[in-house]
Inverse folding.
């Protein structure tokens, strides 16, 4: 455990030292607000009860948006990928629209969502879904299409039906790819929630709205604290999916064969 934690801890310590050195030695005192020291960020953003309450309230709203959008993206993405895996003509018909979701400028669509559905919770969730959907679709489809041909032949020899093949062969074999897509989508959903906050400047302030507001108030310590808190939330969600993936796919050769994978494999 110590060998695994020591390298990232050393990098984090070096990062803090460089941050503190640049803030105190490189930047003039009159411009110190552009890059406050780490201890100032902690003192103002996390040790002040009023400021911490404001940050946690904003994070709570953004977390609800992100998790709701992620849940919908997972359900829609899995169903979409499974449907495409059942026939080549379905994949040719539907996959271009999955790619379109990845290439369309979501930032340009977000204001339209506000006009169509209002500037509240549903529009913010929709932005998260569109950003998080493609990784789920692409990785799930890849996993379903990557089943060992020998196993496919074995199921064909036993006259296995389409549903039997799907639930007993394709989905179990695709689990590592599915969880890879879920981890990517988890981070994307947090980004989607923050993007929605930037545009929907109405109602209760999410963490994205606070990130938008603090620079205009020259509250740099609070800005850094909000960014750190949002990043930590995304990291926790990513880690949770990795933990679940490690438990669910511990039997899979991709986990057993890679001892350097921090999210799976036996050390």
């Amino acid at each position: 455990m110590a060998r695994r934690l020591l390298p990232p801890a050393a990098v984090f310590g070096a990062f803090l030292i460089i941050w503190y050195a640049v803030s105190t030695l490189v930047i003039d005192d009159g411009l110190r607000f552009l890059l406050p020291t780490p201890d100032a960020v902690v003192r103002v953003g996390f040790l002040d009860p009023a400021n911490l309450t404001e940050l946690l309230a904003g994070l709570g709203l953004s977390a609800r948006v992100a998790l709701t959008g992620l849940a919908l993206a997972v359900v829609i993405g899995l169903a979409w990928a499974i449907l495409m895996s059942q026939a080549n003509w379905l994949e040719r018909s539907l996959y271009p629209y999955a790619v379109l979701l990845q290439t369309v400028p979501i930032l340009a669509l977000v204001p339209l969502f506000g006009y169509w559905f209002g500037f509240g919770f549903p529009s913010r969730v929709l932005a998260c879904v569109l950003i998080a959907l493609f990784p789920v679709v692409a990785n799930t489809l890849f996993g379903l299409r990557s089943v060992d041909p020998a196993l496919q032949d074995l199921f064909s020899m036993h006259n296995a039906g389409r549903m039997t093949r799907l639930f007993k062969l394709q989905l179990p074999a695709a689990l590592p790819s599915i969880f890879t897509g879920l981890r990517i989508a988890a981070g994307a959903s947090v980004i989607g929630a923050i993007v929605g906050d930037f545009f929907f400047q109405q109602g209760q302030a999410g963490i994205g709205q606070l990130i938008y507001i603090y620079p205009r108030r020259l509250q740099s310590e609070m800005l850094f604290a909000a960014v750190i808190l949002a990043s930590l939330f995304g990291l926790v969600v990513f880690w949770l999916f990795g933990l679940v993936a490690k438990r669910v796919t511990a039997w899979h050769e991709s986990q057993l064969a890679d001892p350097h994978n921090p999210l799976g494999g036996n050390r």
Summary: The chain has one domain: 49-256. The two ends are 9 Å apart (CA to CA).
